[in-house]
């Protein structure tokens, strides 16, 4: 076994072990995880028990996570402890793919530190062992960014990227708005325009083949040919109809203009500490409903300050250096984060909204940390030895 594989295996074991330990200690507390049998798990078990969900209006949510959770539940023989272990493995696998991106971006040693940072992130620990779709979104996004950031060795890599992207938007439809970033990345994948056109064609064709059948199903069941699920209306038509209302409208007691709501959303996306109380519902928390934030919550603030707030200065530097050095991987990450931020300026911010892109924040922050020691240059970064080997 090579040293690289030993590091990957050790990182996976560390991430998985921490998630199991979190479940056995903090995660078992009713204050942290009041109901292990989530709504998503109920839907997943309904899917596993019958095929009627395909032709009936079983849920307006995207089906991807429910299908994956149903498969994991069947493998676990409906044993909640074994299902938690399998679910935690998804979070640990995301840590591995983040490390693979980070070692290309900042080198082996700092890349390993970035992987450990994500492995110990409180939010990643929590959502790895709670049956919500966030952690699967994290995994699929990191895999997609990993594929897009490395050279395509053959046409099948474009197909793999299309399958991963289709799975991502079938788990969380908000990522359908990030398609421009993914498409532009593929358009400039190599120096050959012909190859790029072929890559782009295969990517789009794969996406269509996987997406169209469910859109047809939605048209039959709901009379609305939505490409993924009815909840996609929130992102594709955010100002029309009741199904597309922004999450800032979730609390009818809050009266604010559209501009005020946009400003509040912008602040909440980046907030890493709350020093005063709030009676406004966290717009991204669609599971627990309206909840009042206390003036000071040590548990929440310490977690967000340590795992997220400490990265903020380096995140800004990482984005600046990505533009100055024109590092392709860093630019892809920056564009992904920028588009994601714009989505949540409209649809709502909050701690939960940051979870799917926390991996991107970590990668850009460590890129900024590494580059701050070097003199910024307007020339593109030279290829690292890893990039030379892979290309």
Q: What this model shows, in words?
A:
With 391 residues, this protein is mainly α. The protein is 64% helix and 0% strand. The chain has helices spanning 3-24, 39-49, 64-75, 80-106, 108-120, 122-128, 134-149, 155-171, 179-187, 193-222, 233-236, 258-270, 298-307, 312-325, 328-347, 351-354, 358-371, 385-390. Helix 2 (39-49) packs across helix 3, helix 5 packs antiparallel against helix 17 and helix 8 runs parallel beside helix 10 (193-222). Mean pLDDT is 84; it is low at 239-253, 279-291 and 382-391.
List keywords for this structure.
391 residues, disordered C terminus, mainly alpha, globular
Helices and strands in order, then pairings?
Layout: H1 3-24, H2 39-49, H3 64-75, H4 80-106, H5 108-120, H6 122-128, H7 134-149, H8 155-171, H9 179-187, H10 193-222, H11 233-236, H12 258-270, H13 298-307, H14 312-325, H15 328-347, H16 351-354, H17 358-371, H18 385-390
What are the secondary-structure elements, in order, as H or E?
A: HHHHHHHHHHHHHHHHHH
Main beta-sheet annotation:
none
**Percent of residues in helical segments?**
55-70%
Q: What is the overall shape?
A: globular
Low-confidence residue ranges: 239-253, 279-291, 382-391
Helix/strand/pairing category: mainly alpha
The averaged pLDDT comes out at 84
The number of helical segments is: 18
Total strands: 0
Residue fraction in strands: under 5%
Gap between N and C termini: 23 Å
Gyration radius over CA: 21 Å
